[in-house]
Automatic annotation (TrEMBL):
Biased composition regions of type Acidic residues, renumbered to the chain: 134-145
Chain residue ranges for the region called Disordered: 113-147
Compositionally biased intervals (Polar residues): 113-133
PROSITE patterns assigned: SET
Species, as recorded: Xylaria multiplex
Domain SET intervals: 508-614
Alphabetical list of Pfam families matching this protein: SET
Protein name per its UniProtKB record: SET domain-containing protein
PANTHER family, A to Z: HISTONE-LYSINE N-METHYLTRANSFERASE SET-6
Domain of life: Eukaryota
Length: 632
């Protein structure tokens, strides 16, 4: 019998051996939530190098255990999701005025007043009373001491190491250039994506929707006619060594044209095949409905015969029409029924944009339960907003099954605020009218220079000696030292490939959503963003001297400028604060011009995207973080 100490030593030895093996195995556990491990132990006699070991175990298998690792892998799995705070929710939304979008500059001519238009007597985090102006200030420590800016509060990118302290400023959000924090598990909000088959299906839908995939019947009706690819001209493999220079050049340009033509043809066929696949699942889902209706009809006409018998009759009739055996039809029908159930819950958009993943999901039916279908039901309006606004013709596919082809949601994808509980989306402007009856928001992809202020100059441009030290006329990335160009063929900088210098830019998978805890709107990540991946650029009006509004203030050399998203900008305008943020703002220089990028710190699919506005931002404001309940 082993002593207590020997058992402890044995336990440690076995545990550390398993841990070593696990490290070597390099398994990605991220995709599992209900993980268990099966451990088998045998004891053997002899040295471990195997030179003279008796390969037979002492007494066969000593132990065999299955260990539940769920709690180790997902320690927070029992934590209620954020939307459990529903009780505070919608009514509360009336109370928190989202500052940056609703306050207009005093210097501009709007006359309405919101609670944040005037200085407020407020409590800061330490409970101290202070009077503040409602602004955002973002000067970044290279302050020239100009106190007129002190009253402006800000979303403020700061340079690493340079203190960002202006005691009188508020609403400063800091950009952290250094000490990129370790990835943290992000909280999920309403959609609460967990790694399962349904999640894969949903993420597949979002990815298709944001991939630039063109689901348009016109694509398959359009021409596939392309110049002859083979036969009458030089094929790519033909030996050209004996050709004269001009013939050679002719052939090269011909090869180039052929290559481009083939690319176009290939693109058209790929798109057409994707569209056909969508038509296929639409028709198959509808066929199941007709099958059920027919069985119902048989039952009404012949109530004495069992429903099973009627089903068989209908199956036999249709299998001969399909040219399949009854069994084959039944197998297919089981999958098609899955398509119908997805359509019933998630709407036609879920079906059309599901891609190939839907087949496996319906074949194996893992996670095909009431809870999953409820999740799809809640997602339905959000999916339709994305589908209608990004793929305006997709509903025309539905005319094949007699559904209305007109889209329901028009405008920009972020003109709609989706609700986590599946209730109808709200027009963006309506979510601000209570504070600003004139609210409107123009969606722009690039910042716009306020010419009244800057003329033709872009204050973000690094005209300083920094830029002039370049050896050639090429632009060089300050981070990776590679050449930058808007021409994808010349560009070598891949710091933020989804934003700069690459051939295709696809819209980021994000949506504006209604927060359930009184923060008005927020930004939802539909798919995961890896740590370090850009979500988008902070764009708006490049201006200066605004007071009493939320602005991002920045500095290049000695030039200060502001980015104001009050009336125009992009989705970054809806990013809320969290003390536990999963994203942050970073500076980046593209073609010698400063840009501010929203970068992921590890954002999970289905989470709200947040940044830490920093204490500076909240300083002196009568607000607590409603996301984390800090700073009450
Ligand atoms: C840049 S906007 C963010 C989008 C905003 N929620 C909206 O609906 O327009 C900043 C404003 O959102 C609100 N906000 C953001 N994060 C918050 C938080 N954690 N707690 C409370 N309010 C927050 C505040 O009103 C803040 O002034």
């Amino acid at each position: 019998m082993l002593s207590e100490e020997q058992i402890t030593a044995l336990r440690q030895q076995v545990a550390s051996a398993i841990a070593d093996e696990l490290t070597r195995a390099n398994i990605s556990f991220d995709q599992f939530t209900e993980l268990s491990a099966s451990v088998e132990v045998e004891f053997r006699e002899g040295p471990i190098d195997g030179s003279s070991v008796d390969p037979r175990p002492l007494s066969g298998l000593t132990i065999s255990r299955v260990i539940d690792l769920t709690k180790v892998i997902s320690p927070g799995s029992n934590t209620p999701p954020t939307h459990g705070e529903d009780s505070i929710a919608t009514a509360d939304n009336q109370n928190v005025e989202p500052t940056s979008g609703v306050i207009v500059p005093l210097s501009r001519s709007h006359t309405f007043v919101t609670p944040h238009d005037t200085p407020n007597q407020v409590l800061n985090h330490k409970g101290k009373n202070s009077t503040v102006d409602e602004n955002i200030d973002t000067s970044d420590g290279e302050d020239d001491g100009n106190n007129s800016r002190m009253a402006i509060s800000s979303l403020r990118p700061s340079r690493g190491g340079i203190p960002v302290v202006e005691d009188d400023t508020r609403r400063q959000m800091q950009v952290v250039d250094e000490n990129f924090p370790k990835r943290r598990k992000a909280e999920t909000v309403g959609y609460a994506m967990k790694p399962s088959s349904l999640d894969k299906l949903i993420i597949g839908i979002w990815e298709q929707l944001h991939s630039g995939a063109n689901v348009d019947p016109a694509q398959i009706l359009g021409e596939f006619i392309s110049p002859p690819l083979l036969g009458d001209t030089t094929s790519p493999s033909q030996d050209m060594t004996g050709l004269s220079l001009s013939t050679e050049l002719d052939n090269i340009s011909l090869l180039g044209r052929q290559f481009n033509d083939t690319t176009v043809l290939c693109r058209k066929v790929t798109q057409a095949s994707r569209t056909c696949r969508s038509i296929e699942v639409i028709v198959q889902a509808r066929w199941v409905e007709h099958f059920d209706a027919y069985v119902e009809h048989l039952k009404v006409n012949d109530p004495k015969t069992s429903i099973t018998r009627h089903r068989k009759t209908a199956a036999v009739e249709s299998s001969s029409n399909f040219g399949w055996s009854e069994k084959e039809l039944r197998n297919k029908m089981a999958i098609w029924r899955g398509y119908k159930e997805i359509k019933d819950a998630g709407g036609w958009a879920a079906l059309v944009f599901a891609g190939m993943g839907i087949y496996r999901f319906c074949k194996y039916r893992i996670g095909f339960d009431n809870e999953s279908m409820q999740r799809l039901r809640n997602l339905r309006p959000a999916l339709e907003v994305a589908a209608d606004t990004m793929n305006p013709n997709w509903r025309r596919l539905l005319s094949i099954v007699g559904e209305p082809p007109e889209r329901v949601y028009s405008g920009h994808p972020h003109d709609w605020v989706v609700c986590l509980d599946g209730s109808p989306p709200i027009q963006l402007r309506k979510t601000y009218l209570q504070w600003d009856p004139y609210f409107e928001y123009k969606h722009i992809e690039e910042s716009v220079i306020d010419q009244a202020t800057w003329g033709c100059d872009d204050p973000r441009w690094k005209s300083s000696s920094e830029a002039l030290t370049r050896v050639s006329s090429l632009f060089v990335c300050q981070d990776c030292s590679s050449e930058q160009s808007d021409d994808p063929k010349l560009n070598c900088c891949y710091c933020f490939p989804s934003l700069f210098g690459c051939a295709t830019l696809t819209p980021p998978p994000v949506q504006v959503f209604r927060t359930p805890d009184g923060r008005n709107n927020g930004l939802m990540a539909l798919c995961a963003f890896e740590r370090g991946a850009p979500v988008g650029e902070f764009v708006g009006l490049i201006t200066k001297g605004l007071q009493d509004v939320d602005v991002m203030e920045n500095i290049v050399g000695s030039t200060k400028y502001q980015i104001w998203q009050g009336r125009q900008g992009n989705f970054t305008r809806f990013v809320n604060h969290s003390c536990n943020a999963n994203a942050q703002y970073q500076r980046f220089t593209w073609l010698d011009t400063q840009r501010i990028i929203l970068v992921s710190k590890g954002i999970e699919a289905g989470s709200e995207i947040t940044v830490d506005y920093s204490d500076q931002y909240w300083k002196g404001l009568d607000k607590k973080c409603r996301k984390c309940h800090h700073g009450a």
